[in-house]
Amino acid sequence: MQPKVKIYIEKSSLEIIAQNSSNPKLYFRNVIEIFRKYADIYLDTTANDLNMMQNPKDLNDPGDIFTFIQGYGLSWPNAANDKFDALRNNTNQMDINGNVIYILNNITEIKKFREKYGVWAILDKDVHDDIFGFSFGKSLNLEKVGKTNNGWINILSPITNDLPPSNSFVLSDGQLLFNNNIDKNKQKCYCGLENLKELLSIILPNTLDVPFYLLIMCNKIDDPQMVGIISKWVKDVQKLRKFEIVIEFFTTSKTLHSRDLYANNYRIEVDRGFYVFKLNKVNNSVTNIVNRDGASFNKIDIKTYLSAPFDKGDTILDIALTELDSIKGKYNKFLKNTGDPKIIVAIDPKYYSKNRILF
Q: Rounded mean pLDDT of 27-40?
């Protein structure tokens, strides 16, 4: 993931934000802080026109881009007229990699970007001061949640429409393959995998015109059947949607304490890994039972990387960058055929290094 958010914005849309920032009732405190500290702005203009903006006609006009940028100490935007022309003329694919946001004035383009490319696109008239912030937390206490049939769909379905679109996930869960149970036939049931599959069934986009990339890193486990188990799991996940889902699953011997799923614009953190439910095979079906396993509760937290721009210390984005940099380092060792990590399920090498969050 790039160190800063890439915000592609039309000139007229930036002027709207600049104008509104002068209104005390609409003052975009959070938006301005994000622009100032966490974002690189790519403006729908040519390099020549961008230079011309540094000679404003009216310094008293709050909607003037120069006045707005200088007044709030923002970095000068990058000219990206060629990128926007490619979008409108369908001559080339726009930037859909990493933590990228589009602020546009065309609802058709917004719908296209969200549904076809899994990119966070926002109508300029819908921008408000908390537009980039989202936070959801839930403690899964047994007495409150219930004993049976309380799967991810019951927990997340109320908020899935509020999550930003995504086209890639990176998952780090050291205990994913250790979350197992023995069923009545004395066969191992890998609860972590089953939980992750159910979670993906809820949060994967419904439509996408490009491949969705999923990279998973977890600790090794000594089970001669593991390759077959994961291979079947991969096929099951790929059946969840009609679009192509490319899954890279690699293991490492170094202990991972984090249990996080990173999307393009948000992070999901789950206590005790993805072992939120204890899954047993009952009549060849899976029953979702809230897992206590010695703990009084499990907890899930979902936050966008820009949810608290004024927080002191490490932000959600800082934490994500540190973790993803570590994962990328291990992944690069695999690509160079050095070190410990290895892919446990073979995929076509043409997909290596394609995950849009890491690269």
A: 93
